[in-house]
Amino acid sequence: MGTFEIKDNIHWVGARDWNLRSFHGPAFHTEQGSTYNSYLIEDEKTVLVDGVYEPFTDTLIEHIEEIIDLEEIDYYVVNHAEPDHSGSFPATMEKLRDDVTVVCTASGKNNLSEHYGGSHNYRVINSGDTIDIGARTLSFLEASMLHWPDSMFTYIPEEKLLLPNDAFGMHLCTSNLFDDQNNKALLMEEAKKYFANILTPFADLVVKKLEEVQEMGLEIDMIAPSHGIIWRENPGAIIEKYAEWGVMEPKNKAVVVYETMWSSTELVAEKITEGLIDAGVEVKFYRESISEKNDVITEILDAKAIIVGSPTINNVMIPEMTPLLEELEGLRFKDKIGATFGSKGWAGGAAARIADRLKTAKIDLVEKPFNFKYVPDEAKLEEAYQLGQKIATEIETAIE
Ligand code: FEO
To answer: Which residues are catalytic?
Structure first.
């Protein structure tokens, strides 16, 4: 065994990837593994919803065969064709009947063709389309750019069940896959990390999609995403969090992230932080080279200010700062303010360079780059403290 029922005659048939430590190449560190959740719906018609990452194809097939013969599958719904869900597609299709119908968006069809080739019996859907499978109905809602052009949600009104693929998911592998069987704080932290690192660029679309779902009056008593746990006890909790994260409502909070060479930049980072804390700001403090970039990004989601520092080396910043700054540009956080700082020996350049990168990431700089030579003296440390206090005032004004 290994499968389990999430509703009567609807089984989880996915795979647990306990050892996954990075996702999207090295971009997303997944210290707690992940799952690829697939679902099998038995009705007058039999439906497979989503697949798994290619190395887990045999697990998917074994799980399905615990319940039915593969030839019984009539519809294969592909909510999203990224390889973590579609890697098993070619091998699975070889085992299904020739007339099985692949259900996806137009973009999904293109993506499957461009990834895997082959000729299949596609049914391309648009939002509002439905398929009667007997006692139940599959109802589809396109969710383009949440987070690929092909993304869609499948909804089963008779079960009040939403199968939204990546949305509402998280990278977490556990033995028990329902929300009520896990630590709720951990679930929300992992869901927030997933949102911050993957969905931030599409936050406005998340808000619009939630409004659309609300206007449609969809009743939802279970959300079964394709990563991590299934929300059955309180699906409203994760919907509420998505609404909050989608608008990026900032808290009285700053993230200080820096690198240091001979501790001068670190001393200034600490003084800026002291100024912020004394003014009542919540601070998250990270030395870049010993911190998880994904954790820094997660904390930025609900912070108002990002304060970044590096010493100058060869007229530029320490190169290890680059991945975070590159991520900030791509993630396009909304309505953040920022400041930069860094030590120099002679020519300098790091703080200004970071400032340029933050501007490119559309972060509104509230102070000019704060530079200091070699080792900050008492006067410079006092200036750093005052910089923290000034940023605190800017935060307070901005979130009022
Ligand atoms: Fe889980 Fe966008 O793939």
So the answer is: 24, 80, 82, 84, 147, 166, 194, 227
Whose structure tokens read 């000019």? 368
When pLDDT is cut at 50, 70 and 90, the band that residue 332 belongs to is very high
Over 80: is that where the pLDDT of 1 sits? no
Beta partners for 102? 76, 122
The model carries a pTM of 0.96
From the CB of 85, is ligand 1 less than 6 Å away? yes
**Separation CA 170–CA 188 (nearest Å):** 9
| Furthest CA-CA distance within the chain | 78
- What is d(CA 111, CA 102) in angstroms, rounded to the nearest whole number? 13
Per DSSP, the three-state class of 86 is helix
State the Cα–Cα distance between residues 89 and 76, nearest whole angstrom. Answer: 9
Two tokens, residue 34: 């992940």
Sorted by where each starts, the structural domains of the chain and their CATH numbers stand as 4-247 (3.60.15.10), 254-395 (3.40.50.360)
Give the per-residue pLDDT at 400. 85
Instruction: State the amino acid at position 312 in one-letter form.
Output: T
Q: What percent of the chain has pLDDT over 90?
A: 98
